[in-house]
Amino acid sequence: MTDRAHIHFGSLEHAERERLAKLEEETTKRLELLRASKSSASSSAPPPPPPVAAPPPETVELSTASQQAIARQQELKESMAKRKRARELAVPTNDNQVKLKLRDSGEPVCLFGEQAPERRERLRDVMALCIDLDEPDIEMRGGQTYDRRYGHAK
């Protein structure tokens, strides 16, 4: 039983401090030896040459396939951003207001076989297109409509 390692009860803080102090002393001694050997070697050796500046990085033109891939990726990013903006638009839920907005934008009020939800989605697409073209959006107030051709409210 005496050959085995001791089981300690309580704190080992004192033993850990001693271990760390020994480690620090050894590290300090090694560092001093390295400094001494470096100073003796540098006094007998010629000074090192100045560092050489690295050449500037080369620029390489991308291949046409890479340029096309980048263009396609950019188009996809733009279309995804447009879809996101279109989803975030506030579109009226009242079918009469949707028809008035379509009329104001110069779109047909109703297409053949089109129901209210499809009309609302078409208005959302038209409004998103107006945003992409930086056209001002017209606020709806009650039953008033704005006629762009004549510049006054009806």
In what order do the strands lie side by side in the largest sheet? Answer: 1-2
Share of residues in helices: 40-55%
Q: Please give the radius of gyration in angstroms.
A: 39 Å
Question: Approximately what portion of the residues adopt beta-strand conformation?
Answer: under 5%
Shape: elongated
Query: SSE order in H/E notation?
Result: HHHHEE
Largest sheet: 2 strands, antiparallel
- What structural class results from the helix and strand content? mainly alpha
- Overall strand count: 2
Low-confidence stretches: 138-149
C-alpha termini separation = 105 Å
Q: Mean of residue pLDDT?
A: 78
CATH class placement of the domain at 64-153: Few Secondary Structures
- At the fold tier of CATH, the topology name of the domain at 64-153 is MYOD Basic-Helix-Loop-Helix Domain, subunit B
CATH architecture of the domain at 64-153: Irregular
Instruction: Specify the number of helices.
Output: 4
What would you say this structure looks like, in words?
- The chain has 154 residues and is an all-alpha fold.
- The chain has a domain at 64-153: Irregular (MYOD Basic-Helix-Loop-Helix Domain, subunit B), CATH 4.10.280.
- Helix content is 55%, strand content 3%.
- The chain is built from four helices and two strands, in the order ααααββ.
- It has helices at residues 13-44, 64-88, 95-104, 116-132; strands at 146-147, 152-153.
- It has a two-stranded antiparallel ribbon with strand order 1-2.
Descriptors:
two-stranded antiparallel ribbon; mainly alpha; elongated; MYOD Basic-Helix-Loop-Helix Domain, subunit B; 2 strands; 154 residues
